[in-house]
User: Which sequence fits this backbone?
């Protein structure tokens, strides 16, 4: 399994390639400071031309802005996951921007859950990767960040936790309903990697989340010039041995693209560009 966190500045975009060649994508952030397009890069350098599973954690612009290019280069996904409980005003905004129009069309078109035999979350279908997801339903006052879809990807002893922009109040409400699915993956994991919620901001830091997930390494998707990331995301992870050095966090601010490749025997490698 290959897990890639793209450098999209203050945004989020993750590509996951399963052992049998399925392609999952979490969020569609874009770095407006460059012309780099992750979807075009994946097509041109990895030969990928279709998308099996697209997850939009929540429809803020920094998680959705590059959607037109994902569709352009990889086509419409076979399966789409989004929080369908959100009202239209939260999902589509004014509906005047291209990515809003595309998201609205996708949201309206994908109305059926795929059969489990061909579901991208089925380990027997996706090459042995266990995928779990959960989210809170919308209600007035909850805040769109706290409706983020939280994704867990587990393979060969490695667990990647992608909580979107969920904040403390959202995590503490979500965990009781998600624990039955998420806790077994945490218990079985030898190495846990957390993608920092809300780009590592203090508003995204939740002690209960950090205590529960107890990550070895935190990945932070961010850019220079935004408010500083919370030091607790950098100081509190257990640490992971990378290139002979015990490392607690990696940030796209300094590392650019971050990629982990996990083999069936649990051995893994990583690279940054």
Assistant:
């Amino acid at each position: 399994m290959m897990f890639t966190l793209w450098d999209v500045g203050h945004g989020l975009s993750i590509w996951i390639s399963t052992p049998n060649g399925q392609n999952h994508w979490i969020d569609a952030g874009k770095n407006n400071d460059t012309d780099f397009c992750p979807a075009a890069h994946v097509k041109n350098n990895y030969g990928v031309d279709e998308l099996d599973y697209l997850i939009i954690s929540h429809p803020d612009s920094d998680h959705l802005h590059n959607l037109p290019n994902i569709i352009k280069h990889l086509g419409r996904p076979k399966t789409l996951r989004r929080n369908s409980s959100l009202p239209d005003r939260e999902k589509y905004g004014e509906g005047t921007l291209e990515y809003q129009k595309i998201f609205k069309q996708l949201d309206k078109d994908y109305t059926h859950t795929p059969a489990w035999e061909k579901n991208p979350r089925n380990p027997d279908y996706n090459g042995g990767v266990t995928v779990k997801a959960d989210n809170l339903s919308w209600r007035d006052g909850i805040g769109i960040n706290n409706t983020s879809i939280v994704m867990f990807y587990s393979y060969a002893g490695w667990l990647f936790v992608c909580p979107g922009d969920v904040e403390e109040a959202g995590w503490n409400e979500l965990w009781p309903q998600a624990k039955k699915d998420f806790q077994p993956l945490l218990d079985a994991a030898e190495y846990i990697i957390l993608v920092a919620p809300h780009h590592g901001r203090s508003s995204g830091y939740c002690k209960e989340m950090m205590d529960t997930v107890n990550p070895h390494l935190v990945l932070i998707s961010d850019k220079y010039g935004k408010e500083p990331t919370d030091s607790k995301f950098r100081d509190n992870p257990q640490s992971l041995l990378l290139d002979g050095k015990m490392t607690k966090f990696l940030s796209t601010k300094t590392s650019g693209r971050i990629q982990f490749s996990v083999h069936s025997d649990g051995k893994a490698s990583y690279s940054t560009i």
Notes: Helices lie at 38-46, 67-74, 88-92, 98-109, 168-188, 207-213, 231-235, 252-255. The chain has eight helices and 15 strands. The two ends are 19 Å apart (CA to CA). Residues 58 and 148 are 5 Å apart (CA to CA).
